[in-house]
């Protein structure tokens, strides 16, 4: 198993580089030993299989931005003319992903077109960059706050590396109403490079964790209109070619998340074992970036703080990819 510990540490070696200690095999082993003995190796196997495509390194984001600079469907036949007139927005209210993407874009834009990012703009095209769309709520809040300052006529391209399908649908519905509410003629295009399935009607083929059943202690997540809806057992999907492995991993992360939720005396209804979300046992996202792990991912990935005193609740779980929370957030 040592080779697998080393391989997973190498896969996430740039996670929050300079902010947390570089992951090594001992770090991964410390994390995985919190699970039952029969769960540890399959969990490592599945992360080693999935995260090469779902863990977004800095280089991956740079390559994504490089592709956007000359994507004819976005910029047309004359990229330099498009970017000279377009404004790359910096309007994110919480989090730093958009600002980071702008800084990564800056030298790429100059190399490709000779333009300075700060000198661009003045036209009626605006580009909102982000890495991953989960629920779409953050993008909606950012654009709603920006609209009063926006010109009366404009077009906004929302360009993201990946979008979850249900969040994409919700955001597109909300965008239809935004400009009407502001009394302006502003159109929006949502442009994800990849779409990850997480709609309830397609749960058997989802690209998120979606268990077939609930373990003991999770019954409270089954009640009401937002209660848990299981997927069908025995189905092989694009993301999970092995149903037994999928079931084992989902249950292991679900049980660990239940334990973590139990550390809080009065947890928020949004705090669910498989990640923050408004329904079921949580969002269950497997996507994360080198910058941070989203709170929509299973709590067992990111919850906890080994620097806290031994009596502190955050010392009761050791995180694999410790999350940097937003300022004034309630992640913990």
What does this structure look like?
By secondary structure, the protein is an alpha/beta fold. It folds into two domains: about 1-55 and about 200-315, no CATH class; about 70-195, Rossmann fold (3-Layer(aba) Sandwich). About 40% of the residues lie in helices and about 10% in strands. The chain has helices at about 1-10, 25-30, 35-55, 60-70, 70-75, 80-85, 95-115, 135-145, 165-180, 245-260, 300; strands at about 55, 85-90, 125-135, 155-165, 185-195, 290. The strands form two sheets. Strands 2-3-4-5 form a four-stranded parallel sheet, with helices on both faces. The chain has a two-stranded parallel ribbon with strand order 1-6. Helix 4 (about 60-70) packs across helix 7 and helix 8 (about 135-145) runs parallel beside helix 9 (about 165-180). The radius of gyration is 21 Å and the shape is globular. The two termini are about 30 Å apart.
Short synopsis of the structure:
The chain has 332 residues and is α/β, with parallel strands linked by helices. 38% of the residues lie in helices and 12% in strands.
Order of helices and strands: HHHEHHHEHEHEHEHEH
Beta strand count: 6
Strand order of the largest sheet: 2-3-4-5
Structural class: alpha/beta
Helicity range: 25-40%
Parts with pLDDT < 50 across at least 5 consecutive residues: none
Can you count the helices? 11
Mean pLDDT: 94
Count of structural domains: 2
Shape: globular
Report the sheet with the most strands, covering strand number, pairing sense and barrel closure. 4 strands, parallel
Distance between the termini: 31 Å
Q: Radius of gyration, rounded?
A: 21 Å
**Portion in strands:** 5-15%
């Amino acid at each position: 198993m040592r080779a697998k510990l080393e391989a997973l540490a190498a896969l996430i070696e740039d996670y929050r580089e300079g902010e947390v200690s570089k992951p090594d095999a001992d770090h991964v082993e410390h994390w995985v030993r919190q699970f039952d003995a029969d769960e540890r190796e399959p969990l490592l196997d599945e992360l080693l299989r999935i995260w090469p495509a779902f863990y977004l390194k800095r280089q991956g984001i740079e390559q994504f931005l490089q592709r956007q600079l000359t994507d004819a469907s976005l910029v047309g036949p004359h990229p330099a003319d498009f970017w000279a007139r377009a404004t790359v927005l910096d309007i994110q209210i919480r989090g730093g992903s958009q600002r980071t993407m702008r800084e990564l874009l800056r030298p790429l834009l100059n190399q490709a077109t000779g333009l300075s990012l700060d000198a661009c703009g003045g036209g009626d095209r605006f580009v909102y960059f982000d890495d991953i769309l989960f629920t779409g709520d953050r993008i909606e809040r950012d654009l709603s706050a920006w609209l009063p300052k926006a010109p009366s006529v404009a077009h906004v391209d929302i360009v993201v590396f990946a979008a979850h399908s249900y969040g994409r649908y919700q955001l597109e519905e909300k965008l239809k109403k935004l400009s009407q509410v502001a009394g302006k003629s502003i159109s929006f295009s949502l442009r994800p490079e990849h779409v990850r399935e997480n709609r309830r009607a397609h749960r058997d083929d989802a690209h998120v964790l979606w268990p077939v059943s609930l373990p003991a202690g999770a019954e409270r997540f089954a009640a009401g209109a937002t209660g848990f809806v299981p997927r069908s057992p025995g189905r092989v999907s694009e993301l999970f070619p092995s149903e037994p492995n999928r079931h084992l991993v989902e249950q292991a992360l679900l049980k660990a998340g239940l334990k973590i939720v139990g550390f809080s005396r009065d947890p928020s209804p949004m705090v669910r074992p498989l990640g923050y979300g408004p329904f079921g046992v949580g969002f269950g996202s497997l996507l994360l970036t080198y910058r941070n792990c989203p709170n929509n991912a299973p709590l067992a990935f990111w919850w906890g703080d080994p620097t806290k005193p031994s009596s502190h609740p955050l010392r009761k779980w050791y995180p694999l990819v410790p999350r940097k929370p937003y300022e004034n957030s309630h992640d913990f």
